[in-house]
Specification:
The complex is a heterodimer. Chain A is mainly α. Chain A contains five helices and no strands. Chain A has one domain. Chain A is elongated and about 60 Å long. Chain B is mainly α. The chains are: A mainly alpha, B mainly alpha.
Chain lengths: 137, 94
């Protein structure tokens, strides 16, 4: 188990840096359909921010925010969102994952955004749970 | 029995190399992918998807099935890691 780091420099820098990394990760996910980025990249950045938190403040601090149960829920939730959008298109009368039928403005862009969010959630949760399990003794 | 597996692996690898040797070269402008698929994407992606990012449009829209499979692979990898690496609390006490 990774425990809390002693150095106050590392802890302060991580405390300052983590929110910015997370905002950047959400930006990368949210702008996946209009600028370079996407669910995989953003999810990895978001997972890395929590891993950084775990390396400096100890894995218990991360466990307080993401319990194992919640991580498993997120891992499944991402795939569920992706497949759910696909089946939503199917129910509305189009092909599987044919976003054009969705009743919103810019249906294809928004469909892609929803799919990217699902991918991001899954990637973040899988990264974190693999690290969590590898670091546990 | 072990040599049999080595031979099987070697034959499979040789078949894959033989199959790959028949493919067009990287970046060959006369390959079917460059003459049919890429121009179609480059010309029509904006009017068909209304998304300025071509890479994501291909990844998430034209090849949505593929990305769904990728996400499922990541999901499966995570589940497998948890199944193999996870330690139960009972084992720690022993």
């Amino acid at each position: 188990m990774i425990i809390k780091h002693e150095s106050i420099i590392i802890k302060t820098i991580v405390r300052v840096l983590t929110p910015f990394i997370q905002i950047f990760a959400l930006y990368v996910i949210m702008h996946g359909h209009s600028s370079p980025g996407g669910g995989f990249q953003g999810g990895v950045i978001l997972g890395a921010s929590y891993i950084l938190l775990g390396l400096s403040f100890g894995m218990n601090e991360v466990k307080k925010r993401f319990s194992e149960r919640l991580l498993m829920l997120f891992t499944s939730l991402g795939v569920f969102i992706y497949a759910g959008i696909g089946f939503l298109c199917l129910i509305l009368g189009a092909n599987f994952l044919d976003y054009g039928i969705l009743p919103i403005a810019e249906p294809r862009g928004m469909g892609m955004l929803g799919v990217e969010i699902g991918v991001g959630i899954t990637v973040m949760a899988v990264m974190l749970s693999i690290f969590h399990n590898l670091s546990a003794e | 029995m072990r040599p049999f597996y080595y031979i099987l692996t070697f034959i499979t690898g040789a078949l894959l190399v033989y199959g790959a040797s028949d493919m067009p070269k990287w970046g060959d402008p006369n390959s079917p992918a460059s003459t049919h698929v890429s121009p179609r994407y480059i010309e029509r992606v904006l009017e068909e998807t209304e998304v300025p990012n071509m890479v994501t449009a291909i990844l998430a829209d034209y090849r949505g099935y593929d990305t769904l499979g990728e996400t499922t692979v990541i999901f499966t990898a995570g589940i497998a890691c948890i199944l193999i690496l996870r330690k139960r609390k009972k084992e720690n006490n022993e």
